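Trying the structure run again after the queue cleared.
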Amino acid sequence: MDIRNYAIALPAAAGLAALLLTACSGGASSHPPAATTTSPARDSAASTVSVTAQEDSNWAGYVIGSNPTTTTATTTAGTSFSSVSGSWTQSAADCASGSPSHSAFWVGIGGYTGTHLEQTGTSADCSASGQATYSVWYELVPAAQAPVTMTVQPGDKLSARVAVSGDKVSISISDLTRHVTFSKQLTMSGPTVSSAEWIAEAPSRCESASSQDCHILSLADFGSVTFTGASASAGGKAGSITSGLAPVTALTLEANPGFGRLYATAAQADASPGALSGNGSSFTVSWQRPEIQMPASPVFVTGPLYH
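Done. Tokens:
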């Protein structure tokens, strides 16, 4: 769910602190304009593609679509995505007793540049007693996640696809290890199709429908997760992240406990994406313990879970 804060990394030579902004799915724009830095995508096959680096409070991974930090009222509508797909191997959560933590891995359309998000994925969560649990779900934001009755365990190979046509959203996720597939077609009013995402996330819990009552949960130690076969379709064309369908953004999850209307419910961790492969279809997101620890008393939040 796109209810997150984010920070833009400014050039060091500017001598400025990072600019922190608040983003909420209920607003006119989920990402207010701000400056960003760009760097060339590494690996030779993608050397001509520029990647915008941006910090986010609960997403880590890659997004293609119009960058909301440079979108204005006069900007053209941009790319409309019809499908997104990708694969990953389910990560194991390294759990310890003390406070619960959560992580999710998914592919989706929308949410980065709009108020709605269509997505499906898996979770690796830790209970307060240190018990790890794994699950499969789909979600059509602004609705909360819907559980999928499918067993998933660490090491399982997953493949997922989301497709949108008009108000029809098709969800498909397969456990290739267990040879099980879940597919469903749903109807959604006004789905957002302006971006495609491959994300590792710290989910949120919301006490009500208002984003002001949402809290980013502590990110579980998932070690790392590698996305492969990342592909999207738009305007009758299909390609990888670096195929030129739309601008590319690399998101690094930087926890900001206590900031603004959202706050961490326990000690936070970070996550960052590695370089894209030569064909732009794979990358790894790694869990990281922040260099500066900000201790806080755990806050146990009830309510639906959002991604």
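The radius of gyration is 18 Å. Worth checking whether this holds up in the mutant runs.
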